């Protein structure tokens, strides 16, 4: 493994194809446009392509739509559903399709396989094929074989592992100012091309082989998930001891060996990455006869954390929630995204509904219109409407909108003044001075 700084070297425009137009694919496309390259975005979903072509994102990601409009206007980017033409006309192909959780937690590579087969089928000259999707160790070799098997005639190519490290809600910043760039390849030709692509990024580059590159991505996400489960489990002990876990988080986070990030107690991690990636790494370990007992515990703690918070809610409200009306603020798994996958909020709602609670919900960007929950959960446009006549409010997502609410004005609208802060967002003393009963997570 070689660690080098990336510096500006000068160079020519590269024709790049990005397959998959989700938040990773679209962000990747626009960042390369920013660096002066010509990009084509490919997706088989015509609705997504039409939206992107007209300058509209089909998902929520701050700052990205403005960049999309800029590069459409400047003609640095185009979008298509024409797989054959897109593959033939571009030199570097990024695979940014989904790898959802499959059986027993393993990553489902169906979309990656389909893309690889298409590349093999339509390849007309040397290409660098880059897997940016999060994929298990050994996928680069599989992609290579899938391409070869579908080539009508042999044409040389290289497969590179180049994992993304984007956070939903801050993907644009993470892409512009990455902590590191990982290039996994054994080909000097492909390595040179990748270095040219990333020459203007001022960050370290890790040069390694594809297997190590693939492992780096899973190891990084699993370690961050571990920090979250660690502080959440510690918070339960702090609750018993009457200790404010926020003070503990601050005290240990100031140790530069530990760091302050991902040490905020809450209802657990969710989204499209951590749950999927931790389970995929566990499955890889299982297939290779290696126990990862710490990660096993990480998953168990995370699964039980929303239920632990539900117990606190039930105890505070007298045990039986039947017939009560409760407001849930926040549906996305974290702020600044519309992603509800594995969201702790939805687990809380399911439990409330199971206890025959009337649930009223609000989120700044998530709408339940196309969700089965829309039939059993009332969603409102304003927080005031949402909390009106409720026995309690549960804060499930750390949206800035909720931190800046005037709780003094909201209190008279509620039947009972209970706030359950699942993200430890609010100032306990301040809301209690307004007459609220405030319950956070070890927020004493």
Automatic annotation (TrEMBL):
Pathway field: Nucleotide-sugar biosynthesis; UDP-alpha-D-glucuronate biosynthesis; UDP-alpha-D-glucuronate from UDP-alpha-D-glucose: step 1/1
UDP-glucose/GDP-mannose dehydrogenase C-terminal domain segment(s): 327-428
Class in the EC hierarchy, top level: oxidoreductase
Active site: 273
Binding site for substrate: 165-168, 217, 262-266, 270, 334
Ribosomal protein is among the record's keywords: no
Signal peptide start and end residues: none
Keyword Secreted included in the entry's annotation: no
SMART domains from the UniProt entry: UDPG_MGDP_dh_C (SM00984)
Keyword annotations of the record: NAD, Oxidoreductase
Gene Ontology BP term (one): UDP-glucuronate biosynthetic process
One MF term in the entry's GO annotations: UDP-glucose 6-dehydrogenase activity
Binding site for NAD(+): 43, 48, 99, 134, 168, 276, 341
Protein name: UDP-glucose 6-dehydrogenase
């Amino acid at each position: 493994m070689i660690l080098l700084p990336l510096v500006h070297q000068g160079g020519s425009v590269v024709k790049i194809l990005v397959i998959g137009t989700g938040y990773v694919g679209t962000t990747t496309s626009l960042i390369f446009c920013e660096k002066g390259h010509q990009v084509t975005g490919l997706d088989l979903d015509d609705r997504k392509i039409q939206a992107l072509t007209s300058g509209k994102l089909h998902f929520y990601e701050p700052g990205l739509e403005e960049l999309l409009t800029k590069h459409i206007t400047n003609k640095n980017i185009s979008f298509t559903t024409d797989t054959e033409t897109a593959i033939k006309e571009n030199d570097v192909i990024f695979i940014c399709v989904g790898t959802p959780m499959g059986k027993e937690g393993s990553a489902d590579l169906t979309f990656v396989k389909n893309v690889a087969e298409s590349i093999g089928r339509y390849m007309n000259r040397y290409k660098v094929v880059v897997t940016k999707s999060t994929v298990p160790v050994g996928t680069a070799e599989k992609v290579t074989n899938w391409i070869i098997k579908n080539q009508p005639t042999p044409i040389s190519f290289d497969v590179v592992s180049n994992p993304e490290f984007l956070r939903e809600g801050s993907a644009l910043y993470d892409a512009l100012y990455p902590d590191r760039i990982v290039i996994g390849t054994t080909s000097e030709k492909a390595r040179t091309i990748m270095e040219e692509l990333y020459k203007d990024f001022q960050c370290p580059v890790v040069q390694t082989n594809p297997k190590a590159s693939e492992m780096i991505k899973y190891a990084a996400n699993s370690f961050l998930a571990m920090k979250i489960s660690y502080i959440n489990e510690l918070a339960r002990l702090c609750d018993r001891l009457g200790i404010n876990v926020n003070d503990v988080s601050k005290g240990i986070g100031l140790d530069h060996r530990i760091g302050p990030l991902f040490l905020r107690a809450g209802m657990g991690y969710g989204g499209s990455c951590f749950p999927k990636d931790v389970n995929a790494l566990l499955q890889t370990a299982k297939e290779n006869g290696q126990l990862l007992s710490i990660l096993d515990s990480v998953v168990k703690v995370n699964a039980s954390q929303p239920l632990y918070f539900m117990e606190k809610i039930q105890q505070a409200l007298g045990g039986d929630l039947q017939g009560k009306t409760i407001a849930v603020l926040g549906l996305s798994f974290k702020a600044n995204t519309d992603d509800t996958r594995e969201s702790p909020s939805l687990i809380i709602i399911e439990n409330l509904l199971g206890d025959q609670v009337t649930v009223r919900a609000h989120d700044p960007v998530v709408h339940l219109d196309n969700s089965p929950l829309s039939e059993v959960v009332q969603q409102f446009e304003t927080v005031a409407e949402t909390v009106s006549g409720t026995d309690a409010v549960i804060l499930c997502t750390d949206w800035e909108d909720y931190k800046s609410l005037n709780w003094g004005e909201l209190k008279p609208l509620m039947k009972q003044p209970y706030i359950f802060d699942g993200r430890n967002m609010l100032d306990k003393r301040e809301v209690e001075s307004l007459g609220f009963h405030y319950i956070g997570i070890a927020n004493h």
